[in-house]
Amino acid sequence: MMKKLHCLSPKRLLSVIVCLVVPGCAFLRSISLESTINSLYRAEQTYDWRTVWSLTHPMLKDGSTYEESVKIWQEREDDLVSWRILSIEEIRDISLIHRLGGTRAVKVAMDVDIYWKDTKETSKAYDQTDSWIQQDGRWLLFYRGWPTD
């Protein structure tokens, strides 16, 4: 599978330069979030369970040990083929953010293709939504599901 190279357009490069001077720039925060999301999906695709574990919020781990989680992940009946971020929306539920020990949270709509091992077919996971929380300057996945969940 070919990897997609990310290049900065002149407009985006100018935004990065401006953000290096302006404190609290949202553009750099979004790059960090997108990079973290891609790191998680790449780790899932390559079975890098240490990285998946490190990017998962304790709530989603549900008290499981690393070894227990790896066993569950290894028994999955599907493989990740490709992914794309569709949109990122702020979660404004302050009580949820504080309860999870974070400072900011977002919902990320994803376009994901899954390969099913039993049928040997690929399908699209329509409307997959991941929820991320920023905690101590790091983004952590705290929920994965669909809007109807």
By secondary-structure content and strand pairing, the structural class works out as alpha+beta
What is the molecular shape?
Answer: globular
> What Rg, in angstroms, do the CA atoms define?
17 Å
Q: Could you say what the CATH topology is called?
A: Nuclear Transport Factor 2, Chain: A
Overall number of strands: 4
The total of helices stands at 6
Topology pattern, helix = H, strand = E: HHHHHEHEEE
What is the residue-mean pLDDT, rounded to a whole number? 84
| C-alpha termini separation | 32 Å
Residues in β-strands, percent: 25-35%
Largest sheet: 4 strands, antiparallel
Supply database-style keywords.
alpha+beta, Nuclear Transport Factor 2, Chain: A, 149 residues, 33% strand, disordered N terminus
Structure description:
With 149 residues, the chain is of the alpha+beta class. It has a single domain, classed as Nuclear Transport Factor 2, Chain: A (Roll). Helix content is 38%, strand content 33%. It is built from six helices and four strands. It has helices at 10-21, 26-45, 49-54, 58-61, 66-74, 94-99; strands at 78-90, 104-116, 121-135, 138-145. Strands 1-2-3-4 form a four-stranded antiparallel beta sheet. Strand 3 (121-135) and strand 4 (138-145) form a beta hairpin. The chain starts with 9 loop residues before the first helix and ends with a strand. The model is unreliable at 1-6 (pLDDT under 50).
